[in-house]
Amino acid sequence: MAAMRALLPDRLDDVDIYEHYARDWVERGGIRVDMVSSMDGAATADGLTAGLQTPADNRVFAALRDLADAVLVGAHTVRQEGYAPVRLDAGRRAVRDRYGFADVLTTVVLSRRLDFDPAAPLFAGAGPEAPTVVLTCAAAPEETRTALSRTVDVLVCGDLAVDFGLARAALAERGLTRLLCEGGPTTFAELVAADEWDELCLSLTPLLAGPGPQRIVAGLPWPGDPRPVRMTGLLEEDGALFLRLTPR
Predict the structure, then answer these.
(1) What is the C-alpha R_g of the chain?
(2) Assigned architecture for domain 29-208+226-247
(3) How far is residue 155's CA from residue 69's CA, in Å, rounded to a whole number?
């Protein structure tokens, strides 16, 4: 396996992935988005992100999780990718301790309709060692909210839709200030439209997926002009590129 190289901010031939992604993040925090794409812009292959993942992408994915207080994910992605509570082994807990993170990783699910099964493992299997939080709105079905609240923390942030500003404040009250959004494309698009994202970590896989799959953003058109970004970091391994991008 080739060594990963840093091309930005400094050229290094064997980069420490944790140090690279901890820089300008651990102290600052915010909402960091992790997405993977083919070189022709596809966000999935055969309907799943797994078809685009490389060994290097999987290492970056693990590092980004280890450098987060919580994983933020939309309900559709939870169902599609089969999310379960995140239980960390001793090695990963030691890494998190080195960077000042708690020894548990919270999963935060964003859903305005709560159209999932409260008995699913992500909710029924949650606990102090692998907590789950649900962000929803007042318009969500009260019966489902009640069922979920028996095993997880349910936060109502907004009336007809989730207000990201209220959601960030509610999570911050629980000590969750460094959030890793793992999608999907609709959630990412909503964060950008609301100006509630702070960094995009984009993996570009050296594949052409062909026509059909959606892009890393989906849903309703954004109001106003395209959003400019600034690249603050760039890694390369075996033809795959790993970008750190922030709003300009």
Answers:
(1) 18
(2) 3-Layer(aba) Sandwich (3.40)
(3) 17
- Residue pair 74/183 in contact (Cβ under 8 Å)? The answer is yes
Whether residue 181 contacts residue 110, with contact meaning beta carbons closer than 8 Å, is answered with no
Residues of 125-134 as b/e, b for ≥16 C-beta within 10 angstroms?
ebeeebbbbb
214 alpha-carbon distance from chain centroid: 18
What are the pLDDT digits (tens) for 127-146?
A: 999 999 999 999 999 999 99
What are the two backbone dihedrals, phi and then psi, of residue 241, each rounded to the nearest 5 degrees? -115, 145
Tokens of 109: 């699910």
Burial label for 223, CB within 10 Å (0-12, 13-18, 19+), is exposed
Counts of helices then strands in the chain (DSSP H, E): 8, 10
DSSP summary character for residue 234: E
Query: Rounded CA gap, 113 and 227, in Å?
Result: 28
pLDDT per position as a tens digit, 67-110: 999 999 999 889 888 899 999 999 999 999 999 999 999 999 99
Residue spans of the domains in the chain: they are 29-208+226-247
Q: Quick check: 114 and 134 in contact, CB under 8 A?
A: yes
Tokens of 66: 């280890």
Question: Is pTM, for the whole model, over 0.90?
Answer: yes
